[in-house]
Design a protein that fits this description.
Mean pLDDT is 95; it is low at 13-21. The chain is globular and about 85 Å long. Helices cover 33% and strands 21% of the residues. The chain is α+β, with helices and mostly antiparallel strands. The site of zinc ion (ZN) has 3 residues, from loops.
């Protein structure tokens, strides 16, 4: 009887479970079409709607909003595991936290966690919004994991906690789907969108994994740091004519701070996925091809105990199918090879194909994670154990508390802190590597769980010499090769090789000090420095309030203090004291009262009417420029091709800024026929005439990096880009940090020291026969990364100021605002903007005092 009763209850339970899972909606029931159907694609709202419904119906699924995106949309993570595991989710999360910091547990405790814990897998879909397949697949994956009860699915659910991010860039998903639907059925169906699919950074949104400038990066790091996944699948799409799917292993080089255990695990997981897909008959899966693992900008996980499995599926035209004949495919994928034993034969390729390949890749990763659960957890523990017990050199990095730009130094430390790095402060003075450091010095010890992350970002990179054959040019890296934050940000940091001892405490937060305002001597006004980025924000705030502000154009001394060129001088006016007091609350700026007017030449500054050129050939550099300008409180307006073609630019602007866009793109834009008419074309000859008129009438044109070509060619400047036609074998700088020497008497270099580190990437190098060189390259310029052909740089110019009619052309020949990382060179740009709109007052009585 008892037995029958149990059977009966079980039967009821089984029926009940089936009823519950029967209520979990299929994606097609919510979307109205099967995932991956030709010309059908779910947008952000539909995807969120689907996950909200499935969350309600399934006890295996919990949907969480982590925060809001750049444009205010929900950023969600979907946690999928067995209902049993869901009941103890917090316990498993804490297990991860404990394994990630072996200083707090014994090996015995670790073994217990390893036997009980779950493998944590994070799947990031479609960070590049136009690579939309994975975001669509995510719904089908969630449905199957919520409803299937086969042995394999159960095994995954019991052993794995899946953190599924269905849209890594929800704003972008909405934008590309809206654009796609708008053009469906026209000749532009599946074509490019003429703006960035992330408000600021477009395709660069997956190159932000150590600087964390964008909200979406920060939200992902929040999930990552809470859960410490061992496996991260980062799902992308690539071109159409190569392999059908790329998976790791990567090609050389690996960044040297990535643990060798991780590198082997990447290879093991990558080839496991490749084997599973090949076994399913999915042709064209390749590994060990093209993608390297050098820059941490795409691989946060590699420094935090997790493997990054990059998948790159062949693309279609968003959701519009394509046909590729075998003859049209890249030669490298036509024959079987050790990297791809089963080539794809060509033919039709659809969004559904991408969904199925992506689905199989994730299922393979989950299967591997479940089967090898203990291996994943144990190696995760070992990696961190190695990190905390490492005893090699360097022993630490020291960040002196006395900095030229302390605010920026604190920003740098907070970036490290977001990446889990512990920063200490010394409680006494101490000696390290033969130097004495005072109490209050910041210390980053290498023996800590994320010491490798800190080291990668604080040391200078020595990019390895990899050539296909002796005498060949350097193998082109997949991305840039220099990422030394102290150089990029202009922060003094010392690498200490030998161990030292000092009492220090762990900083729970790193705040910047308040600024200073010294009154009592302020009859005339105030002076403040020009050496920090905060100084510039203060300038912007005061100009916006209508104060008269000047830059000294020469050195001067008052009351025993010497002031450099570029010192900022503000004239007193009702309310100034209050405004300065409010500025020093959040900016580290020091205002000093000024009794009398200095008898010096000055630049009279004004709030620049700044125009930032925006091409319909969407430019990430334009987006990064907007981002940086906004962070430092500049006002600007976007200037479009039609505005430039219309002319009369002086009516609206003092300064026009051309971001890093090629001359041909500025001139011609996107060809007619490939986008709707309103987005085609460039500024054309009429635009050149109008910009010329704008400068001759007194306007300033600033060009960034490759846009120099536009100014040099179109305005016939006696300046030559001397590396333009040098081959890669002779001259090659694949994104490195170089040194320049500044002319500190020139307003563009005001506040700088004699030399500065600049980021150099796809940059011109100038021979100057007209205008004034503001920064030039010394004989040894490489600081971090790689450089072939130093002689091409020596004594050549990096920044040029060319007088032109009543105005000027300012050419900055490197990415001055590089991915919002190069804080150390931001002021070259900021100075250029103010200088472009300023008026030089030669009259020494330039400070009329009204009594
Ligand atoms: Zn991508």
């Amino acid at each position: 009887m008892q037995k029958v009763k149990i059977l009966y209850v079980s039967l009821i339970l089984l029926i009940f479970t089936n009823i519950v899972s029967a209520q979990v909606p299929k994606p097609e029931e919510v979307l109205g079409f099967k995932v991956g159907t030709d010309r059908k694609v779910a947008d952000m709202f539909q995807i969120i709607d689907y996950f909200t419904r499935i969350d309600k119906e399934s006890d295996r699924i919990v949907v969480k909003e982590v925060g809001k995106t750049t444009m205010g949309n929900p950023f969600i993570v979907v946690i999928i595991t067995s209902s049993q595991n869901h009941k103890s989710l917090e316990k498993y999360r804490k297990y991860q936290q404990r394994l990630a910091d072996p200083r707090k547990i014994t090996d015995k405790e670790a073994e217990k966690i390893i036997s009980e814990g779950k493998a944590i897998v994070m799947v990031n879909c479609s960070i590049h919004a136009s690579e939309i397949g994975a975001s669509q697949m995510s719904m089908e994956l969630a449905y199957d994991l919520a409803t299937k009860n086969d042995k394999k699915t159960r095994h995954i659910l019991d052993n794995v906690i899946l953190l599924l991010v269905p849209m890594h860039n929800p704003d972008g998903i909405q934008m590309v789907v809206d654009w796609y639907k708008k053009n469906l059925g026209t000749k532009f169906e599946g074509g490019r969108m003429p703006w960035l699919y992330h408000k600021y950074v477009g395709h660069d949104n997956n190159r932000d994994w150590y600087m964390f400038t964008q909200v979406e990066s920060q939200l992902t790091i929040k999930v990552h740091n809470a859960w410490h996944p061992q496996i991260i699948v980062d799902m992308h799409q690539m071109g159409s004519r190569g392999a059908r799917l790329f998976v790791p292993p990567y090609v050389d080089p690996y960044e040297p701070n990535v643990d060798p255990i991780l590198r082997q695990q990447v290879a093991m997981m990558g080839t496991f996925i490749a084997a599973e897909l090949t076994a399913e008959g999915k042709a064209g899966v390749i590994h060990s091809s093209g993608f390297d693992a050098w820059t941490p900008a795409r691989a946060y996980h590699h420094y935090h105990g997790g493997i990054r499995i990059l998948t790159e599926a062949a693309s279609v035209r968003l959701a519009t199918p394509i046909t590729i004949k075998f003859e049209e495919m890249s030669a490298s994928v036509k024959k079987p090879s050790v990297r791809m034993p089963l080539p794809w034969k060509g033919g039709a390729w659809t969004l559904r194909d991408i969904v199925e390949y992506d689905y199989s890749a994730v299922k393979a990763a989950l299967t591997n994670a479940a089967r090898l659960r203990e291996n994943w957890l144990r190696n995760f523990y070992r990696i961190h154990k190695k990190a905390i017990t490492q005893s090699g050199s360097p022993y630490a990095f020291i960040i002196p508390s006395k900095q030229r730009d302390l605010s920026t130094a604190i920003k740098m430390m907070n970036v490290l802190k977001m990446g889990g790095v512990e920063i200490h402060k010394s409680e006494a003075s101490f000696w390290a590597d033969g130097c004495e450091y005072p109490e209050g010095t910041y210390i980053v010890y290498m023996a800590q769980p994320y010491g490798g992350f800190a080291k990668a970002l604080l040391e200078n990179q020595e990019y390895p010499e990899i050539r296909e054959y002796p005498g060949a040019p350097l193998k082109t890296p997949y991305d840039v090769v220099g990422h030394t934050l102290p150089l990029l940000m202009g922060v003094e940091t010392v690498q200490v090789e030998k161990s030292f001892k000092v009492k220090s405490f762990l900083l729970s937060r790193i705040d910047k000090p308040k600024g200073k305002y010294v009154s009592g001597n302020d009859v005339f006004g105030y002076v403040w420095g020009h050496t920090t980025n905060d100084d510039i924000v203060a300038l912007n705030r005061l100009l916006k309030k209508g104060y008269k502000v000047f830059w000294s154009a020469e050195k001067f001394g008052i009351g025993g203090t010497n002031y450099r060129q570029g010192t900022m001088i503000i004239k007193n006016k009702e309310g100034l004291a209050g405004d300065l007091n409010s500025i020093i609350k959040d900016l580290y700026v020091q205002f000093v009262g000024l009794k009398v007017k200095p008898e010096i030449k000055t630049y009279e500054l004004r709030l620049p009417r700044l125009g930032l050129y925006k091409s319909w050939s969407a430019s990430m550099d334009e987006g990064w420029t907007r981002w940086v300008l906004e962070q430092y409180e500049f006002q600007y307006k976007s200037v479009f091709n039609k505005d430039i073609r219309k002319g009369n630019l002086n009516n609206d602007f003092d300064v026009i800024l051309l971001p890093d866009i090629r001359e041909s793109t500025i001139m011609n834009g996107i060809p007619e026929g490939s986008v709707p008419l309103e987005y085609s074309g460039g500024i054309g000859e009429i635009g050149v005439k109008n910009i010329k008129e704008f400068i001759q009438n007194g306007g300033a044109l600033i060009t960034l990096n490759s846009a120099a070509e536009f100014a040099i060619k179109r305005f016939h400047l006696a300046i030559e880009n001397c590396v333009q036609s040098v081959d890669r074998k002779s001259f090659f700088v694949p994104g490195s940090i170089l040194r320049v020497l500044n002319d500190t008497d020139h307003p563009i270099a005001y506040g700088y020291e004699r030399d500065t580190a600049v980021f150099f990437w796809r940059s011109p190098v100038f021979t100057v026969n007209e205008g004034r060189s503001v920064a030039r390259y010394p004989s040894h310029s490489l600081l971090s990364g790689w450089l072939t052909g130093e002689k091409y740089l020596f004594n050549k110019s990096a920044i040029v100021d060319v007088p032109f009619g009543k105005g000027k052309i300012i050419i900055i020949g490197f990415p001055v605002q590089y991915r919002a990382q190069s804080h150390g060179t931001f002021r070259f740009l900021f100075n250029s903007i103010f200088y472009g709109a300023a008026k030089l007052e030669m009259n020494k009585s330039s400070f009329p005092i009204h009594h």
